[in-house]
Specification:
Elements (H helix, E strand, L loop, with lengths): L1 H17 L50 H8 L1 H4 L1 H21 L5 E4 L2 E6 L13 E14 L5 H67 L5 H35 L29 H4 L1 H22 L4 E12 L11 E10 L7 H67 L5 H35 L17
Helix pairs in contact: 4-5, 5-6, 5-8, 5-10, 8-9, 9-10
Length: 483
């Protein structure tokens, strides 16, 4: 046995000296501008000023920057009850288990298959003796096999599994980030519906007073009946809009229920009117997105996993050296296993090399390179899209901030015009048509103001999501953590 092991070791050394392990493919070049260069900034960030207290969003639950207790309570339920997040977490556990499966190839595989066999040959069998005896066989074998990782095939398989597990971990964090952002969006849309509801409730009450005014003027003979009809129509239209806004609110409430893992019939969010105040969110540098976006981290890990696939395809051209052995005891009964003569063993190296495969390995190598190029392109596209998402959110917030102020001025002007028209109509100095027009304009501007504030809050949420939320690549599990 020692002679066989020595021969096997010498053969392994011969191949290790005579051949060279193929190098890994180079990693994809970064497409983000280098830190400190003039290009390493967001175009839309010039009008923004970083706020030091807001830096906390990079270290904890980012939604707390909105200072809304109801939102905070809802967000905490995502990690507990959301089914999509549970599915992503299960996928990560499966990827982590795959690492342990690959690591097992570094060690020998030992198995046993004991069996008992009893046989009596037929007297009519060919070449049978005149008195064939019955035979029995009691065998307890142990088989061992081990592949020498001369060219790094096992190492690359383990590395690919690790990269896949890290990509799955990043996928989990991206699902978590997307779900939290979706909940925040639905929450602010729901609060905007509450604000619209409150505005329309007030408008209905105001239109009721206007209808009462026109009715009194008609009864006094100071206004035509058409004024009453128009005032009633205006009131009815506002009542319809007031009822219709409840449809939107219920849909947002149902969406939130699903996100927190509850049936819509068992979930409700109390109505409330909040102050829409978008927080100041520090943007950092474009190159930092490569560290803060979980989807970018996942894409980069997929590239490295495909990189290992190229190495595995090249290693297929090299021979495989393995050690196989079998040993155990065999006898005519179980008790005979204790006797020294019942032992048996066999061991020896096995060298396997494919001499001809019709171009199969060449095709596999070409497919591995193509897969690598695909993941590189996907990685670069995700990086570019992340830059676009940040620029879009910054642009929307910058423009909407100016638009919100303009809309507030428009609301004030429309309200002033309505007050003047109403007073003049009450004094009989102007027709009711001016009041009707002023009411329509005022309501439209007030509703648009709420919608702009809703869009500002939504853009703030999307900016946090585009920046990676409270996640960073440092939270990825280390190789030593992947079992």
């Amino acid at each position: 046995m020692k002679r066989a092991i020595i021969s096997m070791s010498a053969l392994a050394l011969l191949f290790a000296v005579g051949c060279r392990v193929p190098p890994p493919a180079p990693p994809p070049p970064a497409i983000a501008p280098a830190v400190g260069t003039p290009a390493d900034k967001f175009k839309e960030a010039d009008a923004w000023h970083p706020s030091e207290p807001s830096d906390a969003i990079a270290h904890g639950p980012w939604w707390e920057v909105f200072n809304d207790a109801e939102l905070n309570a809802l967000e905490q339920q995502i990690d507990i009850s959301n089914q999509n997040l549970m599915a992503a977490e299960a996928r990560f556990r499966g990827a982590r288990a795959a690492v342990g499966y690959s690591r097992a190839s570094r060690f020998p595989t030992i198995w046993t298959a004991p069996y008992i066999n009893s046989m009596r040959r037929s007297r009519e069998a060919p070449y049978a003796t005149s008195d064939p005896a019955a035979t029995g066989d009691f065998v307890l074998p142990f088989d061992i096999s081990y592949e020498f990782d001369i060219w790094g095939r096992v190492r690359r398989v383990v590395q690919a599994s690790r990269e896949g597990a890290q990509a799955s971990a990043a996928d989990l964090e991206y699902v978590r980030l997307a779900l939290h952002a979706e909940l925040a969006l639905n929450y602010f849309y729901l609060r905007a519906a509450d604000a619209q509801k409150g505005l329309l409730d007030q408008t209905v009450e105001s239109y009721k007073k206007t209808l009462e005014l026109t009715t009194n003027r008609f009864d006094e003979g100071a206004a035509p009946k058409s004024d009453v009809a128009q005032a009633r129509t205006q009131l009815q239209s506002a009542t319809v809009a007031d009822s219709d806004i409840s449809v939107q609110r219920s849909q947002y409430e149902h969406a939130i229920a699903i996100l927190v893992g509850k049936p819509p019939s068992e979930f409700s969010v109390p109505s409330a009117v909040i102050e829409f105040t978008p927080p100041i969110i520090p943007t950092g540098l474009p190159s930092q997105l490569l560290e803060r976006r979980p989807d970018i981290a996942s894409a980069e890990r997929r590239v490295q996993q495909a990189n290992e696939g190229i190495g595995l395809a090249k290693i297929a051209y090299y021979p495989t050296l393995s050690l196989s052995g079998v040993g155990g005891v065999e006898g005519h009964s179980i008790s005979s296993w204790l006797n020294a003569p019942s032992r048996f063993w066999a061991v020896g190296p096995l060298l396997t090399e494919t001499l001809f495969d019709g171009g199969r390995r060449r095709a596999t190598s070409a497919a591995a390179v193509a897969s690598y190029d695909q993941y590189v392109a996907n990685y670069r596209q995700i990086v570019l899209q992340s830059f676009q998402e940040v620029e879009d959110a910054l642009s929307v917030l910058r423009i909407l901030e100016r638009e919100a102020q303009q809309q507030r001025d428009a609301v004030a002007s429309a309200q002033e015009s309505l007050d003047i028209a109403t007073n003049r109509y009450r004094e009989g100095a102007s027709p009711y048509l001016q009041v009707l027009t002023a009411q329509t304009i005022a309501l439209a501007n007030q509703r648009n103001q709420i919608d702009i504030e809703r869009r500002r809050m939504g853009a703030s949420v999307l900016l946090v999501k585009a920046l990676g939320g409270g996640w960073s690549q440092s939270t990825l599990p280390k190789f030593s953590d992947l079992r």
